[in-house]
């Protein structure tokens, strides 16, 4: 028996974004302008801090451990 049901296997390209991620991205796209790679301004320091915090959060949530550096 043949089925006409389709199975979508490309979830990587269409993965829903976690609402917490969306919230942070929108915040930094609308009110927190800064270049995390720059060292010239305090707003850049805030952007760099946010990137560092996001990295630590991902490492902790994925591997249940704190980053070593």
Q: State the helical fraction.
A: 40-55%
**Structural class, judged by helices and strands?**
mainly alpha
Largest sheet: none
- Determine the strand fraction and express it as a percent band: under 5%
Give the ordered list of helices and strands: HH
Q: What is the mean predicted local confidence, pLDDT?
A: 82
Query: What is the number of strand segments?
Result: 0
SS field, number of helical segments: 2
Measured on Cα atoms, how large is the radius of gyration?
A: 18 Å
Supply the number of structural domains: 1
Distance between the termini: 57 Å
Low-confidence stretches: none
Shape: elongated
In short:
This is Ssr5019 protein. The chain contains two helices and no strands.
How do the helices and strands line up, and which of them pair or pack?
Layout: H1 19-30, H2 42-63
Brief descriptors of the model:
mainly alpha, PyrdxlP-dep_Trfase, single chain, 69 residues
Q: Could you explain the architecture of this structure?
A:
- With 69 residues, the protein is an all-alpha fold.
- It has one domain (11-63).
- The chain is 49% helix and 0% strand.
- The radius of gyration is 18 Å and the shape is elongated.
């Amino acid at each position: 028996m043949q089925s006409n049901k389709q199975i979508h296997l490309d979830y990587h390209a269409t993965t829903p974004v976690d609402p917490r991620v969306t919230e942070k991205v929108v915040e930094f796209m609308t009110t927190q302008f800064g270049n995390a790679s720059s060292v010239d301004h305090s707003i850049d320091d805030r952007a760099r801090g946010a990137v560092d915090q996001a990295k630590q959060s991902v490492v902790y949530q994925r591997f249940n451990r704190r980053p070593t550096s």
